[in-house]
Amino acid sequence: MSFDANAYRQASVENWQEAAPGWVRRAELMRELAAPVSHWMLDAIAPQPGQRVLELAAGLGETAMLAAELIAPMGSVVVSDQAEAMLEGARARAVELGLANVECRVLNAEWIDLPLASVDAVLCRWGYMLMADPATALGETRRVLRPGGRVALAVWDAIEQNPWASLPARELSERGLVPSASGEEPSWAPGPFALGSAARVSELLQQAGFAEIVLEALELTRRHAGFDELWDTTLDLSRNFHDAVLSRAEGEIEEIRASLAERFAQYTCADGALEIPGRTLVAAATA
Ligand SMILES: C[S@@+](CC[C@H](N)C(=O)[O-])C[C@H]1O[C@@H](n2cnc3c(N)ncnc32)[C@H](O)[C@@H]1O
Q1: DSSP E strands: which ranges in the chain?
Q2: DSSP for 229-245, written as a single string
Q3: pLDDT in tens, 96-121
Q4: Which terminus of the chain faces fewer neighbouring Cβ atoms within 10 Å, N or C?
Q5: pLDDT at position 287, please?
Q6: What is the pLDDT of residue 258?
Q7: What is 5-161+188-223+279-286's CATH superfamily?
Q8: What are the Cα distances from residue 48, in Å, to 42, 169, 172?
Q9: Which atom of ligand 1 is nearest to the CA of 58?
C-alpha cells in the first residue's frame, strides 16, 4: 500500500484548521504539561538578545514566545504553522503577553519560505512526526539555519509510553471505529507516534547533515481534575478521536465514555484527580 503524501497534506491542513478552537480552549493545560519540554528546548538553543528564532508547526506559538522574551528588544521570532486558524490563536496570545517582536506566518515546514541561513535557531515541538516527509522538513530546517545555528525539537515517544493516547486508541480500535492494522500499512505514515524512536530521530538529524546531536526522553504527567475533564480535553485536542466518537449514536457515545472511564480509573489519585503518565523525546543539534 502506498502513502499519498499530497492527499495527506491537504487533509492535515483541514484537520488542524478545525482543531484550532479546541487547542485554544486547552492552551493552559498544554502550557502546564509541556513546560519541561519547552524549557529543555530553550536551554538547548540558548537564545541570545538580538537573535532571530523560527518556530515550525508552532500551533499557538508557545515555545517561540518564551524565546521572544529572552531575545527582545532587538531579536525577533517567527511563529509559523500550516494552519492559519492556529496562528490566529498565536496572535491573540502575543497580544496578551504584550510581545512586540513576534511575527506569525503561514508556512509549510517541508518547504520553508525563508532564505538560506536566515535564522539563528529553530524550534519545533510535536511537529515533525506529523509531516508527510520529515526528512525533507529537517533538510529545510538546516537550510534556513545559519552555520552553527541550533534546532531543538520534541516528538512523542512510542504510543505504549503514552496511555493518555493509547487507551482511547485501544477503545476505538476494539470497537472497529478506526482501521486496525492489516499488515499492509505503508512503510511510512505520519502521526503523533510516528517518530517514537530515539534511533530514528538521531538518524534523521544525521541524514539532514546536523552535528552535535543530543537526545533525551522526558517523563510528563497529564493531570486532570477528573474523568469528565479528560474526556472533554481529548475531544478538543484529538480531531481523530472527536470525529470517530461524535459520529456515533448517543447510546454508543455513552458506552465509549463509560468504558474509557474504567480504563483510566487506574490513574486516580487520593484527591480524585487523574495523573496519566506520558513520555516525549527531545533532541537538539547544530547546523
Ligand atoms: C500537535 S500540534 C503542536 C502545536 C505546538 N507546536 C505545540 O507544541 O503545542 C501540531 C501542529 O503542527 C502543524 N503542522 C503539521 N504539519 C505541518 C507542516 N508540514 N508544516 C507546518 N505545520 C505543520 C499543525 O497545523 C499543528 O498546528
Answers
A1: 52-55, 76-81, 102-106, 119-125, 145-156, 211-224, 274-286
A2: HHHHHHHHH-HHHHHHH
A3: 999 999 999 999 999 999 999 999 99
A4: N
A5: 98
A6: 98
A7: Vaccinia Virus protein VP39 (3.40.50.150)
A8: 11, 42, 46
A9: 6
Residue among 13, 16, 237 whose CB has most ligand 1 atoms within 8 A, to mutate: 16
**Residue 183, pLDDT above cutoff 90:** no
With 80 as the cut, is the pLDDT of residue 1 above it? no
Per domain, the residue ranges of the chain are 5-161+188-223+279-286
Ligand 1 centroid to residue 131 C-alpha, Å: 8
- What is the Å distance from ligand 1's center to 86 Cα? 9
Ligand 1 binding pocket, CB closer than 6 Å: 12, 16, 30, 34, 57-59, 62, 81-83, 86, 108-110, 125-127, 130-131
C-alpha cell at 21: 478552537
* Residue ID of nearest Cα to ligand 1 atom 6: 58
Of 4-13, 136-145, 177-186, 267-276, least confident by mean pLDDT is 177-186
